[in-house]
Design goal:
This protein has about 200 residues and is of the alpha/beta class. Helices cover about 30% and strands about 30% of the residues.
Length: about 200
């Protein structure tokens, strides 16, 4: 899907996604000393704005200018400031993202085919400062047959091991599937996500 298709999806007055931050991001980041954070494929900014509220100097990047505008509006409405950039996270980010400039890089639910996934994660790795942490959260490949919701296209789903294998130069601290309860009209269902946490050595 290209940026114009996502622009159309985001163009409505409401939010496509929740304004609440991702639960796994909150679990992983709460209690950490704040520094410089980068949210790649930030969408409407729910995670970027939450990070800014925790004291992080946060940059949000997405290829949808409509989504990035909404992220800026959300930040202003909640009394925080974020830096925003419109860019394709699978492409050249040199004009938007300082290499080695971030203590935390977040890639949340960026569901891409393998080649695009590899390029996006290479950009995430390149953005990490020494000692910095990368968090990748996504719908897991196992969700297709064993979980609720999420993309039904296996080409955009990966396992935590497949993601970890792309993080050249980082120390993988955790690569696991995680369950996410989802409230539905039929009751509580379980989605299967994965969480990969890796660190650039000092």
């Amino acid at each position: 899907m290209d940026s114009q298709a996502w622009n159309e999806r985001y163009r409505g007055s409401g939010l496509v996604w929740s304004a609440e931050p991702n639960r796994f991001l909150v679990e992983q980041v709460s209690g950490r000393a704040a520094g410089r954070a980068l949210d790649l494929a930030a969408g409407e900014g729910r995670n970027a704005v939450w990070l800014a509220e925790q004291g992080w100097a946060t940059t949000a990047v997405d290829f949808s200018d409509v989504a990035i505008e909404k992220a800026g509006e959300m930040a202003a409405a909640r009394g925080v400031s974020i830096t925003t950039a419109v860019a394709d996270v699978t492409g050249d980010l040199s004009g938007s993202v300082a290499p080695g400039g971030f203590d935390l890089v977040v890639v949340a639910y960026l569901q891409l085919p393998a080649e695009d996934r590899a390029r996006a994660l290479a950009n995430a790795v390149a953005a990490l400062a020494p000692g910095g942490t990368l968090l990748e959260i996504a719908h897991d490949a196992a969700n297709l047959s064993g979980g609720y919701g999420g993309p039904q296209d296996p080409s955009v789903l990966a396992t935590p091991a497949e993601v970890a294998a792309l993080l050249d130069g980082l120390v993988v601290e955790s690569a696991e599937t995680v369950e996410r309860p989802v409230e539905t009209a039929e009751g509580m269902r379980i989605a299967i996500d994965h969480l990969v946490r890796a660190r650039r050595p000092v």
